[in-house]
Amino acid sequence: MEANALLTSCLLGLPPGGVCPSPVDFEMNRAFMLTVVVSNQAHLASGIQSALQSTAGVTISVQDVNEAPYFPTNPKHIRFEEGVPAGTSLTTFSAADPDRLQMQQIIRY
Fold first, then answer.
1. Distance between CA atoms of residues 68 and 109, nearest Å
2. How far apart are CA 54 and CA 50, in angstroms?
3. Which of 1, 3, 40, 42 is the most exposed place for a label (fewest CB within 10 A)?
4. Each residue of 65-88: b (16+ CB within 10 Å) or e?
5. Domain boundaries, the chain
C-alpha cells in the first residue's frame, strides 16, 4: 500500500475498550455522541498548509422498544391465619413498566 494512503482512526466518546459494557437502554440514554478522528500517517508534501488530521461528529440515536411490565416483588409471599373472613383484603399488587410514560400506556391487571 502506498504510504500516502495510510491512515489512523479512532472513536472518542466510548467507554474504555470502545465497547458498551451492557445493552443500550433508551430510558437511560436516548443518544450517544461520538467523535471520529482520522490522522494521516505520512507527512504532507512540502508547501501543503493543511492539518494532519480531521474530525467528524457522529450522533447515534437509540430507538425505543416496548418493554414488558414487571412486578418489583416477585415472587410475593403472603401469610395469614386460618379463619380470616371471606372478602378480607390479603395484599395488594403493583407493577411497573419502564416505558409507560414514553409509550403512553396504562397498566391493567
1. 13
2. 10
3. 1
4. eeeeeeeeeeeeeeeeeeeeeeee
5. 3-61
- Longest CA pairwise span in the chain (Å): 97
As a whole number of angstroms, the distance between CA 84 and CA 92 comes to: 17
Q: Which residues of the chain have pLDDT under 50?
A: 1
C-alpha cell at 30: 436516548
Q: Do residues 31 and 62 make contact, with C-beta atoms less than 8 angstroms apart? A: yes
pTM above 0.70, yes or no: no
Q: How confident is the model over 44-69, as pLDDT tens digits? A: 777 777 777 888 998 989 888 888 88
- Residue 16 — φ and ψ, nearest 5°? -55, 135
Q: What phi and psi values does residue 39 have, to the nearest 5 degrees?
A: -125, 145
